[in-house]
Specification:
mainly alpha
């Protein structure tokens, strides 16, 4: 295994194969970019939550297959009494 001798970069080092970057951003620009990315992520999450909350409820169809007429009517009566709302709210 190679070691650092006389300021020679260690072959196991991460800096050995990485070229020096010529574009150096100021620290304030890095923070601004990070805030922008995090803000966009929060905006996407808020918009997704709003879309899920405002989505119309799914329509429920009741099949009478395998049910007697009395069972079907009883089930239909119970389903008609249920409040129609969104899944989340």
């Amino acid at each position: 295994m190679a070691q650092t001798v006389n300021e020679v970069t260690d072959l196991m080092s991460d800096k050995a194969g990485r070229p020096a970057s010529k574009l150096q951003l100021p620290t304030s620009a890095r923070y601004l970019f990070m805030i922008l990315v995090l803000g966009l992520l929060v905006l996407i999450l808020i918009m997704g939550g709003k879309a899920l909350r405002d989505a119309p409820p799914a329509e429920i169809h009741i099949s009478n297959q395998g049910l007697s007429t009395a069972q079907y009517n009883s089930l239909q009566t119970v389903m008609d009494q249920q409040k129609v709302s969104s899944f989340y709210f």
